[in-house]
Amino acid sequence: MRSQDTGLSPAWVARKVVAYDELQAVAGSLWWLQSDPDHDGVRRVMCSEGSGNAFAVTPSDFSIGGELHAYGGGSFAVVEGAVWFVGDGGSLFRQPLGLTPDRIVSIRGSERYGDLAPGPDGSVFAVRGDGAADEIVAVTPAGDVQILVRSSEFLSCPRLAGDALAYLEWDRDQMPWDSCRLLLAGIRSGRPGAGRVVAGGSSESVVQPSWGPDGLLYFMSDRTGWWNLYRLRDDTVTPVLPIDADCAPAPWEAGYQSYGFAPDGTIVLTVLNGFSTELIAVDPTGGRRRLGPNLTSVKPYIAVDEGRLAVIGSSPSSAPGLWSLDLTAQADAPAVPVGTRSGGVPPRTPVPPSVDTARGTDGRVSFLLHRPAGITAPVPLLVRAHPGPTDDVPLRLDWTTQFFVSHGFAVAEVLYRGSTGRGRAFRQVLHGHWGEYDVEDCAAAAEHLRSTGVALPGAMFISGASAGGYTALQAASRPEPFAGATATSAIIDPARWELSVPEFQRPHAAALRGPAGAVTPERIRCPVLVIHGTADTITSAEEAMRFAQDLAALGGDHDSLLLEDGDHYLSAPAAREQALRAELDFYRRLMTRPRA
Description:
Pfam family, one: Peptidase_S9
Mean pLDDT: 94
Protein name: S9 family peptidase
GO biological process, one term: proteolysis
Structural class: alpha+beta
CATH superfamily of the domain at 346-592: Alpha/Beta hydrolase fold, catalytic domain
InterPro entries: 6-blade_b-propeller_TolB-like, AB_hydrolase_fold, Peptidase_S9_cat, Xaa-Pro_dipeptidyl-ppase/CocE
Shape: globular
GO molecular function: serine-type peptidase activity
Low-confidence stretches: none
């Protein structure tokens, strides 16, 4: 282990998390949401015009974002010289450019707004949900609200073109990445008729519908087992880029757009290739070429305006930020950064990872391996189990990972069974086996690294947040191979969580739950650190702290950290700093304790 004074500081890392989301291109300008520690994590609408200089559009006392379907998304739309947005608290605001926001609609009871999209005559379309039903509504600048579609099921993605409205619908006992329908409704006298299903079904997930400049309806579907892009012409569905790869992520939030249209008919889309996300341009003849090869991770917000492409991208040496690319440039031309916050020079050069595999109980287990530079001897190992569990492991600079690497740890990020990016079958194989297959794959990675001399025996740890926290706790319930576990914002009892989780996510909880069951203190076989925020609305802080107290009563080197006002993601820099410091100190204490 290195001296604890040589690694990155928790305070520095906690203030490096700058979030970029919901990138859009409108009338020659780029618009996006940004939050960073310099402004207390307030999410603001930002704009970059032709000069490349970015400026905040919304005031600093408004934090943008709602809780539609629990996770929000589609939080703003630019419509005829004004920005519509969902403010913190859920109300719908309209702000003419250069002026102050006006509250247009206040929420009532459990109402939630989101999934905003431009409507006709300066209005905005939105999805409004109240927990019992969803509605697609049109809201005028005067505050008039017209219900266009109402359903007892979930709705999303209202997209208007001429006299046709496209939208998505899925049953309340399903997740949209398992089963979802695309509907099309004709507009007469300003009102849509009954929607008819044009794609999707019980065993098909359709996501991200969008009207192309050719007047055709495009969408992603996993009908072949992979989310690919399709177009609808005269009730006939044809693939744009048939490929054995996912071109979209699981729709946890509204507003994802993993493809865009260039003026010459070229379509740009993302293609998930292992841990990397590639940008692929498909021309009208079907020819394809890769764009921006210097980016290895791209968020699902593709913005195309005229001949330029903009994305939120990153690589092993660059944290997520805004990047731009000239679509007329030569093949393999790199993307260039848009003039946004650089964050200064990091105190140490990031260590790039390698891709490794281990022999698992059901084939090979893939993971990203980050090793301390210049060290060939065995070192402590931290296995990180991603959240979701329907999530992935992007190949990008992550300062939390670099924090532990800088303190002498190897870090393995495991793409365990149930992750996204490897097709429908891989995504669904965890159903009924949560707490088993994910744990087996994380353990396989650790045991492989121990057998190959990378990991130090007796100093292998596992950490996870949310669903990954449940994975970590289930791993700690087994005698091998981990010497300690950290569970942040963790799920303790899947059955109880299924009853309390936001309604959107309940089918996911039901599908995942299997014989592994609840984690109980009596089953824990190694020291555990429990970290939770009191303001967590996704998982129960009370249940986590009760679990931690019961663990402590049994004796052992267990620990806990309750963060006042901390949310599910520990978004506040102070909360992240405390959590990082506590986790590192926990592992150090375990490595220096006398061995039995």
